[in-house]
Each structure stands twice: as structure tokens, then as C-alpha cells.
Amino acid sequence: MTMDQKISIKIAERTFYLTASSPEQEQLIRLAEDAINRRLDNYLRRNPGKSLIELMSMVALNECACRISYQREIDARKAEAGELGKDLADYLAQAGK
């Protein structure tokens, strides 16, 4: 069900107005907002004097690196599941003889 809920979020003291197409999407957006702001606050504490653009670039780099790492894990698990499925099919074929 589409709800097209207008929401506002704040990242680095800037407000963004967005439309969430479902409650799940709104939840994901708000979780992302929180994760970005927490990471940015961490970088602000560790790197005083750096520009906001430098810090946001580091946030983006870190988030993308994490996403790529998770995707690699998912791909490895899918390959492993495929191999296990093949092994199971082979086993069942042998057991049926």
C-alpha cells in the first residue's frame, strides 16, 4: 500500500523534505538519518577543524565501503547456498538409486 507520507529529516543541521512511499521506507530513511548523524558526530569529535564537506565525504566513503562489504558477504552466502543445494540434490539423487 502506497502512503506517500511527507517527512522531514535533519542531516548536519540541514533539513531535507522527502516523501516516503511506505511506513517501511520512512523507517529506513529515519534509521539512515540517525546513522549518518552519529557517524558525522564521531568524525567531528575526532577531526576538529575539518570542513563539513570533508567530513561528509568521509561519512559517504565509510557507508559505501560498509555497503560493499555487506554485499560481498551476501554474494558469498548465496554462492555457498547454491553449492549446498547442488550437494543436497546430488545426495538425494544417489540415495534414490
Q: What would you say this structure looks like, in words?
A:
There is one protein chain. This protein has helices at 23-46, 52-95, and strands spanning 5-11, 14-20. With 97 residues, it is of the alpha+beta class. The protein has a two-stranded antiparallel ribbon with strand order 1-2. Strand 1 (5-11) and strand 2 form a beta hairpin. Helix 1 packs across helix 2 (52-95). The longest helix has 44 residues, at 52-95. The protein is elongated and about 70 Å long. The termini are far apart.
SSE class:
alpha+beta
In DSSP terms, counting alpha (H) and pi (I) runs of 4 or more, how many helices?
Answer: 2
**H/E element order:** EEHH
For the terminal residues, how far apart are their CA atoms? Answer: 50 Å
Q: How helical, in percent, are the residues?
A: over 70%
Rg calc: 22 Å
Strand order of the largest sheet: 1-2
Number of strands: 2
Uncertain spans? none
Oligomer designation: single chain
* Largest sheet entry: 2 strands, antiparallel
Mean pLDDT comes to: 95
Shape: elongated
Strand content of the residues, in percent?
A: 5-15%
Notable characteristics:
70% helix; elongated
Q: Short description, anyone?
A:
About 70% of the residues lie in helices and about 15% in strands.
What is the secondary structure topology, with strand pairs?
Layout: E1 5-11, E2 14-20, H1 23-46, H2 52-95
Antiparallel strand pairs: 1-2
